Amino acid sequence: MIRCLHTLKRSLAGRKLYLWDVGKNAVWTFTSMLNRELDVSGFLTESPVYVGETILNRPVLAAASVRGDPEALIILNSDITPFKRRKAEQYGECLLWPDTLEPNPALSGKDVYICGTGNEVWTFAREARRRWNVTVKGFLEEDARAPREILGLPVLDLRTAQLPEDAAVILLQPHWCRDMAALDVLQERGFSGDLYVRGLAQREQLWSIDPVIMLDDAMKRSRRILLCCEDAMGRAFLHRIAALYDIPIDREVCFAGCAEDGLEDFWSLADEDPEQSVLLIHAFSEKRRYEIVDAANDLGYSAGAHNYTATNVICYSRMYYTRTVNYEADPLLTASVDYTPVGGLPGWAVYGEAETADKRIMVLGGSTSSELFYQESWAAKLCRRLRAEGHAVVIYNGAHEGNTAAQELDRMLRDIRALRPDIVISMSGYNDMQKSGNKFEAMGGEPAFDHWRRIESYMKRIAEAEGAVFHAILQPVNQGPVERPLYDVLMFQGQEDWRAQPFNDHRRSDDFYTDLFPLFFGRSEMFIDMCHYSEQGNALLADAVYQVIKGDLS
Question: What is the C-alpha to C-alpha distance for residues 263 and 252, in angstroms, rounded to an integer?
Fold first, then answer.
């Protein structure tokens, strides 16, 4: 059975649990509560617009409706602002979500084995023995050959260790969801004990269509809910959640089929209508998740249309899933991606042939322009269009996850002379909405938009000094009217809305940068999450950038 390492404090048992607000941050907390199979009584809001709606069959209530109820406990997400916390406290007892948790009491008295041998594992083992009353019997490691010990405990081979039937195994890797080979091995061995994890689904569904909202939307629109699950433990867990929240699962498959469990293979879903169904994917293995997502797209499912989702991240690219490319330490930028295994350069994906190119284009930006996501980037689409029209171009794409304009400037300063671009494009803005300190910070500080504009102006001067035309582009963002439909609020609207407001208020169409900020306002299917573009969104963005640079191609 899958269990969480931390669960609701026993002292809070029997309380009615209400989540504060109906935004994205509340949904992330709700996901964490679902991981612990907690029955949420409802959502509280001060906005009358959403009162009377439901989320996974739980009501959205006026905040005042719980005032005076001694059994009510209002759960606040850990990102709540002090102002909003004070407002919530007017209606009853409130606790931050992390403060409601304690070590899972089911661990007590178990023979516990921990997967892995890294520093975090050591720290956890000491803490578990000292404060959790947990007996750690050893550590499990794939291909552990030579006998050795850690903290006086044996390191056992994951494939051959003799584990007691009632043993508990803890998966505690920093990024445990990235590589669940350990779980695959345990299942192959027929492991029947308890598996303890931090959560079946990640709190931050930033790179994935949110499964909670997709399931809720499917029920409200009477769409068929399809499940493709790759392991028995995960399947059992999802069925328990579905039963708790009255979620109908209309059909189940697994990728290769499983006659023993009565499951057809994934391709049997060819008779389902993607417009009338929602596909939920669960696979601990990233490689298998990629194969399922690839197959889903072949069957007509689309991330942009939000008709498939997963319990874990699904939107990284094949290169990331298969470890064809890897992050590497970068002394200037902390981390970078080495694209040399796919014909690129350290830090730069390359499209086209540099030797035959008569125009060299440099692209800078964040994850919305990078090559590490499933949706083909707008830069790759732009290159294909330019070459189809007869332009001999090479594009160096140096966009990386999380890069701010200041990090773009660093990357540009280091590599512009080596790459010798004729055109430099900086597609940015989103990562600068929450301004973080950097060496280009003005003394006394400055508003986020002013900081972004100043850094872009520096890049313009440097590019021009090196003989390149520079185009700063204020990128499209997923922002809309203040009162959005509940689906949009739950799927997209976190703190990004108020972070984006200063950019919306100060952007200009007559400045040195190109303002594409509102390009997707009022358009559906442009985003797969709060910020990343869908296939359709990237295609439109490539067209827009083409219009910006076409005069520089002759």
Answer: 6
Residues 185-243 pLDDT 10s: 777 777 878 888 877 665 545 556 789 999 999 999 999 999 999 888 889 999 999 99
d(CA 463, CA 532): 27
CA distance 407 to 402: 9
| 401 and 531 inside one domain | yes
- Is the dihedral angle over the CA atoms 531, 534, 537, 541 positive or is it negative? positive
CA dist 137 and 232 (Å) reads 26
Rounded distance, CA 432 to CA 310, Å? 29
Residue 317 lies in a domain: no
The counts of H helices and E strands in the chain are 14, 27
Please write the tens of the pLDDT for every residue from 141-184.
Answer: 877 777 888 888 888 888 888 888 778 898 876 444 444 567 77
335 and 329 in contact (C-beta within 8 Å)? yes
SS3 392: coil
- Which pTM was predicted? 0.86
In single-letter form, the type of residue at position 131 comes to R
DSSP letter for each residue of 488-507: HHHHH-STHHHHHHHHHHH-
Q: Are residues 332 and 230 in the same domain?
A: no
Q: Residue 309 in contact with residue 210, Cβ under 8 Å? A: yes
Q: In the 8-state DSSP scheme, what is residue 15?
A: P
CA distances from residue 433 to 204, 437, 438 in whole angstroms, order as listed? 18, 12, 14
Q: Is residue 291 domain-shared with residue 367, that is, in the same domain? A: no
Q: For residue range 480-530, what is the model confidence (pLDDT) as tens digits?
A: 655 678 888 888 766 556 678 889 899 999 999 999 999 998 888 898 888
Cβ proximity of 162 and 111 under 8 Å: no
| 160 neighbors 134 (Cβ within 8 angstroms) | no
Q: Are residues 361 and 227 in the same domain?
A: no
Nearest to 387 by CA among 419, 356, 416, 363: 356
Q: Say yes or no: 376 and 514 in one domain.
A: yes
Q: Which class for 32: exposed (0-12), middle (13-18), buried (19 or more C-beta within 10 A)?
A: buried
- Rounded to an integer, what distance in angstroms lies between the CA atom of residue 50 and that of residue 61? 8
Cα-based angle 546, 552, 553 (whole degrees, multiple of 5) = 75
Residue 353: which domain range?
323-552
In DSSP terms, 45 is beta-bridged to: 62
